[in-house]
Task: structure prediction
Amino acid sequence: MSGLFEDFVDLDALADEIASDDPQRRRVAVLALADSGEAEAVWLLGRLVGDPDAGVRRQVALGLGTFDGPASAGFLVTLLSDADSAVAATAAESLAEIKDAAAAPHLIEALSDTSGFIRAAVLRSLKELRAPHALGPALDALRDNEAEVRIQAVGVIGYLKREDTVPALRAVADDGDPLVRRAAVSALGFSHTAGAAETLARALDDDDWRVRESAAEALGLSRAPHIDAGPLIGTLDDDYWQVRLKAVRSLGQLEAAEAALRIAESLQHPEANLRKEAAAALGQIAHPATRPHLEAAAADPDADVRKNVRWALSRPDRHL
Result:
């Protein structure tokens, strides 16, 4: 008999607990409400968004993140403006966990808030919802004064993967903030248009290595028929091995035979991650001219590199 009711949650008792004068008791009650999974628990948690204890409010923000729906999103939006930065930050993280598209209209309303932090947090949450009616507000947010807001707006647009948004993303790829440009070129990876490929190729010469890295990666993901491997091959001389790695990966995805011998040079690079990607790319391209380079790399000191080399050598030559 002792285990029959062990999963029973007494919401009335917890309602009494969250009204306690003891903040520790209120925090424990919040934990129980979050663990309950009961829809009614959201409204009890909502009573505490104005609790005098910041620790309780932060626990409420964490608890609300375990529930979906407009009510939970609404309470979390309220907590975004909390005077305690830790509470507000936790609310932003929890809001990004909301996966119910029914919350989108309430979130869109919050985009009119004067706080850039709130606008960015709301857009970050909207991205995960992939709500079509969030597109217009996200396009408007590309002109926001706050760089973080523009970054999150790009995320909303990129997740929707609509070719008609490519001109807007191409425009923001010239943003004055490098992290906004990076977000834009990453988002363009879904597009198969010549315009997107042109913008990504141009971004390979960006002053910021993080933008070049994202552009090199996006070119491989797009697999657009308009891609010229030349700019990517040029990126194999980049000062940053991280950029070279993404270029190598993309050239492999594009099966760019003209890049095979240049990629083979990366088998001698001191960075093991780059050598591993080079071996994988050579396996995808399967050019016979690279076989001696792969055989020489079969004794690489890194086990992952050796594994990729073995796979690449097992592949039949395709460029005879």
